Amino acid sequence: MVIKMRLNRTLKENIEGYLFISPALLGVIIFSLGPMIASLILSFMQYDIVNPPRFIGTSNFKALLTDPLFSKALFNTMYYVGGVVPLRLIVALLAAILLNQKIKGVTFYRTAYYLPSVSAGVAISIVWTYVLDPQYGLINSVLRYFGIEGPPWLQSTTWAMPGLILMGTWSIGQPMVIFLAGLQGIPTHLYEAVSIDGGNWWHKFRYVTLPMLTPVIFFNMVMQTIGTFQVFTSVYVMTNGGPMNSTLVYVFYLYQQAFQWLKMGYGSALAWVLFLIIFTLTVLQFRISSLWVYHE
Amino acid sequence: MKNSKKFKTTIWEIFLYTIMSIGALIFMLPFLWMISTSLKPSTQVFIYPIQWIPRPPVWRNYIDSLRSAPFGRYYLNTTIITALTVLGTVISSTLSAYGFARLSFKGRDLFFLLILSAMMLPNQVTVIPQFIMFKLLGWLNTFLPLTVPSFFGPPFFIFLLRQYMLTLPKELDDAAFIDGCSKLQVLVLILLPLLKPAIFTMTILTFLGSWNDFFGPLIYLSDMKKYTVTLGLTLFRGEFATYWNWLMAASIVAILPCLLIFMLAQKYFIQGIALTGLKG
Lengths: 296, 280
Fold this sequence. Notes:
The structure holds two protein chains of two kinds. The longest helix of chain A has 41 residues, at 2-42. Chain A is 74% helix and 1% strand. Chain A has a two-stranded antiparallel sheet. Chain A has two domains: 2-42; 59-292, MetI-like (MetI-like fold, Orthogonal Bundle). By secondary structure, chain A is an all-alpha fold. Chain A has 13 helices and two strands, in the order αββαααααααααααα. Chain B is mainly α. In chain B, α4 (71-102) packs antiparallel against α11, α9 (171-178) packs across α10 and α11 (196-212) runs antiparallel to α14 (244-264). The N and C termini of chain B lie far apart (49 Å). The relative contact order of chain B is 0.13. The mean pLDDT of chain B is 86. At the A-B interface, α1, α3, α4, α5 and α6 of A face α1, α4, α5, α6 and α12 of B.
């Protein structure tokens, strides 16, 4: 009798549990796992939505190796990531240190520094197209005050990518806030110890702030690398991949293949290669981290 | 001695404020430039040196630019999509997070791990099959592909809420059970009020994500009547490529809700990022 009641109770607990998590479970199966498997299968197929899919073995992946636009897109993306991630992290760290000072009005400044990250997207990309306008843009106008003739930015194959990197560096909000939280977690007695030993602000930064912050720097680096590797909107709005494919980045190329030219199989192959690249980069960052990340 | 120390602090503060203000100016400048341009007559857009204060300010730019494209319709569409997305995310994440945080059932930890691993999967891997699936369902060119997935618990927010729920004492639940509450009642009546900060953060992040979303509307919506603000803005830009004053006016209107929400909920917002960032 007692055993039966207990059985009933565990059964009831189980059913209730599954009911509560059913949205999540269904969601993962329908929108993540299922598509993931489908995408893997699709990458071995030729499929244009209109005609039935056709199995073509590893042809998509072989085609990738000789596709000049694939290597171009990969190179451009590396260029973008290699530019934005270090610059954004350095600026974000400096801003966080500045905003961590205990003085009045710091909230106002925090809002100002964060603002570019709230509105990321199409509107900001349009504004930056104008900011980078060679003739009437904000940057070149300011440079002209100092007698410098600025580059033609988005209209030149050399300068379009630096222009996009500049815009990417401008929105530091997310890593900055995480740095701020990290800074606030550093115990003050460590700084006091440096003071007692006669150290100055540089010693405090070099021997307390920086080592204590390495786990946060690492976290930001990993997240920002993953995020910037998927850059799309600014490229779509500002350069459309041009001029002469100089800003053709990976996800933009994937979008063109899959959704403009309806090459769903090739697009899926591109997606899986992207996943593998990001995965490898992340694993690599974790491996190297033991050399420089300080753990208490 | 005391005076010289005070003097030193003042100098230091002036120095700090100067540096911080220069930084703020750099981050705000594109926004100020945006506002300034949006109020200029066309003749003043193309002059050098920059005229920061438009004389006279042309408020009509806002009316003219908003009239030249169906921005009202775009706004309505985006509001519907965003509202449904927020609603779906909050309901489904709360239910699922409660299951993972408070109930014990077979395979719970395994399922949780499954959801966590889904979080790592980049959007690009799933988007093509999702597109094909929605096409087969006949959902292309509707709001369904943009809203329905949010009713199935986005992994990131389930994770966030579960972590938050684990910090709440379980005695609260037990007391309510003794009083005869069901599990759903405990969740809604006891836990929900305590989860407010986390739900607030989730709402803001979902709102911004949905309002600014571009890739989703771009691939799923083709009928101009169904366009969202972001999509309508790119169309508008194609038509009025050099009407910078109009473009800036429309852009300001497009991001206004995000700016307002950010200003009003600044504290929660920054707390939320730090919380999710460090624990994620």
